[in-house]
């Protein structure tokens, strides 16, 4: 009861996890006061999860943290899922990220938003699965914005998919007509295509 708030205050997540495991082993995890302290500790550490694990590509730790939070009775919200999906993308955990995306609504009653779709498009795109990414874009319930098309566009450059790059570029030219970066990126893709001896149509 005394140590868990200290862990929360210092964002000492690993130490808090050890205490959680110890409490479970000796049967204290069902105690209401302990459960409250665990919830507070994991909630406090959530901001650290967002800033540290995600930004440094530590997707496995992000997944483990979220699972610990769920185990402690703290339900993930849309912000948690954004951080989790982003962490999976940065760490190449494609199947894990897709699993969590699929269970957002059905298990946790969190309606996927534009930012979640953007994370999954980036997740698939980084893995070279750009065809699956554009298929996801075409099936989503809301209109795709610059974040989604931008993630797909960048993935097409990395994996040299000119056909889908042109689709994404046309969307971005409409959505962001003053963003010169999109024109530069498409030009770079054309140059890479030329270097590979391929032709294009526009």
TrEMBL record:
Entries under InterPro entries matching the protein: E_motif, PPR_At4g14850-like_plant, PPR_rpt, TPR-like_helical_dom_sf
GO molecular-function terms, A-Z: RNA binding
Pfam families: E_motif, PPR
Origin superkingdom: Eukaryota
GO biological process, one term: RNA modification
Keywords of this entry: Repeat
Protein's name according to its UniProt entry: Putative pentatricopeptide repeat-containing protein
């Amino acid at each position: 009861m005394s140590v868990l708030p200290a862990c929360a205050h210092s964002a000492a997540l690993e130490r808090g996890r050890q205490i959680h495991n110890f409490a479970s082993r000796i049967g204290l995890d069902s105690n209401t006061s302990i459960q409250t302290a665990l919830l507070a500790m994991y909630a406090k550490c959530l901001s650290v999860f967002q800033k540290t694990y995600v930004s440094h590509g530590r997707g496995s730790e992000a997944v483990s943290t979220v699972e610990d939070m769920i185990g402690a009775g703290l339900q993930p919200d849309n912000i948690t899922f954004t951080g989790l999906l982003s962490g999976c993308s940065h760490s190449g955990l494609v199947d894990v990220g897709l699993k969590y995306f699929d269970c957002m609504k059905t298990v946790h009653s969190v309606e996927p938003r534009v930012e979640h779709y953007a994370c999954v498009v980036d997740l698939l795109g980084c893995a070279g699965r750009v065809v699956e990414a554009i298929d996801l874009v075409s099936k989503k319930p809301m209109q795709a914005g610059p974040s989604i098309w931008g993630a797909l566009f960048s993935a097409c450059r990395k994996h040299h998919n000119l056909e889908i790059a042109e689709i994404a570029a046309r969307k971005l030219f409409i959505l962001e007509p003053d963003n010169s970066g999109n024109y530069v990126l498409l030009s770079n893709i054309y140059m890479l295509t030329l270097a590979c001896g391929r032709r294009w149509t526009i």
